[in-house]
Design brief:
By secondary structure, the protein is mostly helical. The longest helix has 39 residues.
Length: 95
Amino acid sequence: MKETMQKIASVFKMIFGYGIMIVLFAGGLTFFGYVAALCIGGDTAAAICKWIYKSMVPVMIYASTVLILFGLLTMYLAGEKALVPGIKKKEKESK
C-alpha cells in the first residue's frame, strides 16, 4: 500500500512541478505583454492589457489553484510534513 502511495505521489509531484513551471512561464509572458503595451501606448495598449487581464489571468489563477491541490495531495500521500519546526528533529539527533 505504501509503495502505491509513493508512486501516486511521484506522479502528482511531476504534474505539480511541470504545471507550476508552465503557469510561471505564462506569468512571465503576461509581463512581457504589459511591457509591449506600455511601449505601444494608446487604445491598442488598452486592448492588449484588457485581453491579458480578461483571458490569461483567470486561467493562470484556476490552473495554479488546481496545481496547488496536486502539491498538497503529494505531500499527504508521501507523508511529508512542511512548515513544521525542526526542533524535535534536533532534539532526537542530539540524544
